[in-house]
């Protein structure tokens, strides 16, 4: 019974010691060893708060009743250590060191390094051993990490161990429990938080641990071979302290197939970080997905983007079009003076995306395109936006609703919709477009749509109309077609109207030319007919008499009129000549008379007609 009580008390004391150690912000080596007449250096860590940076640091030696100060940063040095003890503070790094030289055997004891006005302030207990030699055991490497932070550990061994198993294990009561090794074994408590990566030098490797917890404080070994049987190892002493000025955010993120997630990564805005990136953890490495330097994996094109906000020390990675294969652990990574890493676990659960709409849209150049994005009522107060995706980010195109007509009070009946409209799409509009929501500076869900822009019919301009008309029906003529290659009659109505107007003009113009020619001929003929008709007046009688009706009038006048010469007048070749009979030869020598006008001839013909009529009347009487 007494033995069981002893075991219980021992376990309780060890657990209490571990609890105090993990909660104590001051950290240093548990044990240091030096040779006589040699020297030792003790490194102590403290949180880099403003108070701690300016507070007193000290090194004291334990006695039965108190811890007597050996040396402090305020300038005090004990007489026994005068000339052989120094203390140096590095406030920017949160470290102060104590160096003791000319070691003697009586220096062996328990000491404390601490911060405060007296020796009862925050402190860490250190055991100093002075050995006669000749060898000194290797000291553990110290790692001081803030809660939720990360650490990189380099484990360097002889190249002869290049083909041996590499591992990291944690020291405990019963041995060293495996954390990770090159055989792919990972302790469930560290899954997604630890990574082993080989270095270029055979036998050497690096360990990365992130999202550290208070219970991760302790002693570890990194080694080659098998612990306790073969190979080599070295001791790692790790301390996780609670104080941190960097928020961590949720470590588990849920997403649904086809939906999206936003991974918010935090870093100290006071740090000098030139590279920020997200990688996906696997047992033998971490695949870098995207960086703030516009580099990314091709397979993630159109579905991942990184937004950096140095003012509040965050960068957000948005992923959409999620699949079951996206589940796993992701690391937020930064470089700089103090490298930071944090782990996020993505779980794919059952459900439907909040934002819905088409995933692909085909359009023809010059047409009007509208892309809808429907969102549930829970997003009615969120900011909505459309953006065009690039590998450098997503440029906002619209940030307000087009269909908003007034204050919406009830949003229970149906989903709301945000539209992105192109009046006339052009070739450069092709690409990925994201619809998304955000609230109070934090990004929410997103939905990706790919717009494909196809070439349409090219209408000829005034300069090239004749050339394009000559190519109609040729193999090189451009015909609008739909996606399946079938001619689309409705794809370009303006082009059809243009062709119809050309056909009508080609028919009407020849008809108009013929009509104009006929009208001209009719006018000319009519004019000539009118020119051959004269107005004849006899007293008060006026009539139009055609000269063709009296073409023999002069014959009648020559025979019946006694006072009329026998000469007959005619025109030959346009020259006036008189033809005489033989009996009137001497009279033919008379000079020719002037040509009478048509009116005069009409009068003579009419007079002849009257004389003949009068003669006929007398004969009957």
Give the structure's gist in a few sentences:
The chain is 17% helix and 38% strand. The protein is α+β, with helices and mostly antiparallel strands. The N and C termini lie far apart (194 Å).
Structure, explained:
GO terms for molecular function: transmembrane signaling receptor activity. This is Polymeric immunoglobulin receptor. Keywords: Cell membrane, Disulfide bond, Glycoprotein, Immunoglobulin domain, Membrane, Secreted, Signal, Transmembrane, Transmembrane helix. Residues 1-17 form the signal peptide. One of its GO terms (cellular component) is extracellular region. This protein is an alpha+beta fold. The protein has a 5-stranded mixed β-sheet with strand order 1-8-7-3-4, with no helix packed on it. The protein has a 5-stranded mixed β-sheet with strand order 9-16-15-11-12, with helices on one face. It has a 5-stranded mixed β-sheet with strand order 17-24-23-19-20, with no helix packed on it. Helix 5 (553-560) packs across helix 6 (598-620). The longest helix is centred in the C-terminal third of the chain and has 39 residues, at 493-531.
